[in-house]
Design goal:
Elements: H1 16-20, E1 28-33, E2 36-41, H2 45-59, E3 66-70, E4 74-75, E5 82-83, E6 87-91, E7 100-101, E8 107-112, H3 115-131, E9 136-141, E10 149-155, E11 161-163, E12 170-173, E13 179-182
Parallel strand pairs: 4-7, 8-9
Antiparallel strand pairs: 1-2, 3-6, 4-5, 6-8, 9-10, 10-11, 12-13
Protein name: Putative restriction endonuclease domain-containing protein
Domain Putative restriction endonuclease: 16-178
Organism: Nocardia macrotermitis
Length: 193
């Protein structure tokens, strides 16, 4: 049986309809960035480990009715209408949807593992998420040569992010809900004792 799939547009903008018609690809992660198709490899082991361990910490502390999800496709407004945050915290019911809407995201988290992803996460996605009213956004950087760190972005009344200082170690926050995240345990080999 042959399955017809939409061709991947190259060197031109992609519409939401074309994007949504792309075949499922388990080797890559697709997003629309500034109107163009962005194709990234699936997360490498350090990135995947950080996502998994962060989700464990979040799900152990989240209020009833909320859950942490990895790599849900988000529906946004603007020139980048399809994004895939590494982790989102949202109502449990979103697991029934094809994609999550920005107004359902209580917290979006990106894991930066390279200079390129850091630029995208700290600048480009921060602007896009703020424009879509995502009130709480975190970037966890696990770049080589430095301990893992967390930077918290909080939307102000003018819909701009206020950026907190980069923190390491154990971090306790009160918004969007009380949480304590041990940033150091997101990376490195699993501890057996």
């Amino acid at each position: 049986m042959t399955v017809e799939t939409a061709p991947i547009p190259r060197e031109r903008a992609i519409s939401v309809e074309e994007f949504d018609a792309l075949a499922v690809d388990t080797d890559h992660r697709y997003e629309i960035e500034n109107g163009f198709l962005l194709v990234n490899a699936r997360p490498a082991p350090p990135h995947s480990r950080a996502i998994f361990r962060l989700m464990l910490q979040l799900n152990a502390q989240l209020p009833e009715g909320l859950e942490a999800f990895s790599e849900l496709e988000a529906e946004l407004i603007g020139r980048s209408p399809r994004r895939v945050p590494d982790v989102v915290v949202a109502p449990v019911e979103v697991d029934e949807q094809t994609r999550i809407r920005s107004d359902q995201i209580a917290l979006a988290v990106e894991i930066a593992t390279s200079g390129e992803s850091a630029v995208r996460d700290f600048a480009i996605k921060a602007r896009e998420y703020a424009a879509n009213g995502i009130a709480h956004y975190w970037v966890i950087d696990i770049l080589d040569g430095a301990p893992a760190g967390l930077t918290i972005f909080t939307l102000d009344t003018e819909e701009n992010y206020q950026i907190g200082p980069r923190t390491t170690g154990s971090v306790t926050v009160s918004e969007p809900f009380p949480l304590t995240i041990d940033i150091d345990t997101l990376t490195g080999p699993r501890k057996t004792s």
